Amino acid sequence: VVAMLGLEAAAPGECELTRLLQDKLQYEMRLQFMKHYFPIDYTVQVQYEEVLRPSNITRLRNGTVSEMALRYLWFHVSSQAVLRIHEVLPEKHPSWRYTQELCRLFDALGEEYSKYQQTDVEPVVADLVKLVHSAGAESRRKAVRPKALLDNCIKVMRMLYGAPCEWKAL
To answer: Is the confidence at residue 20, as pLDDT, over 90?
Structure first.
């Protein structure tokens, strides 16, 4: 079934790290650290491309983008989103240590993706990754709640890693 869907296997390191991320991104933790510990209606300014929703993944899959490229895109977008949240927090904020742990997990996952180059993925994904990391995209910013960024992160992660990593139903 997996072969019929064209899902490429994820590396064992990817599966283990995303499983750890899944544990850290449990709903209760996202609610506590990204909503309850923030002022009401608090938002973080992110680039338009830094908001990756399941519908974006579905659209790219229908455009025949490989699963490896989608996971590469998810990594870059999600790690930037977590970094954006972490950067706005003072060190004494109750969510600072939580976001620091998420950053460490993404750094470890980055080691898994360090072997990929932007030239190894489809041009549409390479262009999106370039935009995510470009500093000059100030005009393409939008305000997003921190919890919404992490909600999208885990939803897309489950789409991309659930089957290849053989996760149980969540």
So the answer is: yes
